[in-house]
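Re: the multi-chain job from yesterday

Posting the exact lines I submitted so nobody has to dig through the queue logs.
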Amino acid sequence: MCDQTPNWILQHPAYQQMKDLEVGDSEQLHAAFLVYMDLTEVRRWKEVSCVKSPELQVVLLKAKEKEGASVQTIFPLPVHRSLSHRSIRQVLDRGFPVLLCAVAADSTLVYQRMTDGLVTPDPPAGPFQDVGRRQHRKRRQQH
Amino acid sequence: MEESPSMDDHQDSSLVVGVGLCDSAPLLWRLQDLKTVRSLGLVGALLGSLPRTPRQNQRLGRPLLLLPEEEKLLRDEEAAGALPGQNQDVGGVELQRRFEEDQQRSFEEQSVLALEDRKSALLRAMTSSHTGSESGAEAVDEALRRRLEALDHSFTFPQSAMAVQLSTARAGLSYCPEARAHLQANWPIREQNSPRSDARCQVFRDLRGRGFFLTSAGKFGGDFLVYPGDPLRFHAHFIAVCLMLDESVCLLDVLAVARLGSNVKKTVLLCSPTADGGVHYTSLQWSGMV
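And the result, structure tokens for all chains:
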């Protein structure tokens, strides 16, 4: 298979589209393409497209989790890269919910949600019950 | 003074806490001072060992160590004054003399009581072993009398046998309550003013101003733990990581702190001060996309 289409990525129309954005960062371009494939083929997200961020000179993706959902911005970045809070703010300023996607050398993808402001975490799941003194005493004896 | 929702209504603007410096650590020693800073929404960290429950780290006592940001806040609001250094010569000698007097008195009392104790023990021993024999009663009395006399002459109460009472109930901290020096401009500036520490300070003030309580977040790899109310009543909601807007951070570090946050059910907060005095907050959460 390898010798038949070694450049299938380079020839992929989506890749070509991203390349035409001319961000001048082939590594980030590659990362963006992997995220594109994950969103379209694996997670089946809708209306996945690419857009250039002029401030950051990177390829960003836009997509909807499903039909009728709201648009989100996905920021792909190779995992060994650095970034600043300012660049994150610039992506947030686009006005859509943001997912930062870290792409590892083995193509592992990790998505982190980034939101402006203070988002209270989900409370721990109930139901709760008091453990009782016996339980505490047991735990102490184990030390 | 800056108003915040958590401040008491009857806040006395002349309320000043006395900060004692131990090397460079700002410490609060007086109970009233601890109450005052808590009412200002500052938590600090207790460092001291409690006399009645030593050898454990779950419950600690005074002094209270202030964060650099907390100390700066008090300073800026003119709510902190320097505790005068201890007048060791005068106070110490007097205290020592009184202590030695008390010890001596206690020793003399205990000697008398110990002798009485011995005598009554002797009495009990000798009379109980001869009960019922009338004929030898007089002889016993005579022996007893001689033994008691001997005891009077030869009995010594050794110093090492003395019982010493240690007061553990609220030992007073010796200082002069009247003499307080209001904060002067020459308060020693100890911390190096790095951009990071400035960022921390601004973030601290902003969050405190919104009514949150903050403590240090060393255990969680962040700068502050942010509580929606008093830490005694709430779990922390956020781990605040303070950085400058243009500071470069490794994506791996962002992932690490975000992962930690989701493991402990807290949102990681990236906090950066802006040029106009505000703060940008970005919440990091797990996407849920495995």
